[in-house]
Known about the structure:
The complex is a heterodimer of chains A (195) and B (68).
Chain A: H1 5-29, H2 32-48, H3 59-80, H4 94-97, H5 118-123, H6 125-137, H7 140-151, H8 156-163, H9 167-193
Helix pairs in contact in A: 1-2, 1-3, 1-7, 2-3, 6-9, 7-9
Chain B: H1 4-13, H2 21-33, H3 35-54
Helix pairs in contact in B: 1-2, 1-3
Amino acid sequence: MTTNSPDDDRHRRLAAVRPRLVAFALMHLRDAAQAEDAVQEALVAAIEKQDAFAGRSGYETWVFGILKYKILDALRAQKRHGKWQPLEDEDEDDAIDRQFQRNGRWQESARPSSWGEPEATFENERFWQVFDACMIHLPDNLARVFSLRELMGLSTDDICHEVGIKENNCWVMLHRARLRLRACIERGWLEDSTC
Amino acid sequence: MLMCKEATRLMSLKRDRPLTFQERLSLRLHLAMCGACRNCDRQFELLHRVGRHYAPPAEGEARDDEER
């Protein structure tokens, strides 16, 4: 070893990606201290195992992959401590009922509008600020299931297994999470951008 | 006749499991006639893609749902 500059480079990249790792962990775990712990463990593992990084995917992607396992471990611990609640009442959700009229049509004030081209949306920093804020406002049980499905990419079958809920309950939660998120994002983002 | 609220349930569901023939048909019919629901469907699709931008899936960690 004559130089350690590749290590330095990786440490710099880890420091740079850390805020995203923390935000990602927080969306699943809904607990700042636990999110920090999971990220810390992932960073330690990444540094210790960096010889195992084969360079097939990006370094950051590889670190995210490690973090996903740490998050699942932490979620299992949460489940053991009884933090996971199934959705008790599958019929009632005021936040969603407010989007629809009695006859099942959209409320005039809640009718979804166009968000434009997805790629342009994803490049808009404001979108991500609003998305993060809306995720934080989501009830814990909805946010966890949504994160596992759409951020972690687990199947609903796997989620049921992890969380110990029925698949139908999972589908109802995902429907609610998506409707709440879309309404929240539309309020926070579109109305803001027209100013 | 499918109403918007029920249509959003199917829009959500199709991202988690394949719809039955009946479900697919009634959703398609509704979407053909309802612009607000077409927007909602695109918004759900955007939310579905958010993960790949947030934390890109690692190689071999294929997402199974691309074609649904």
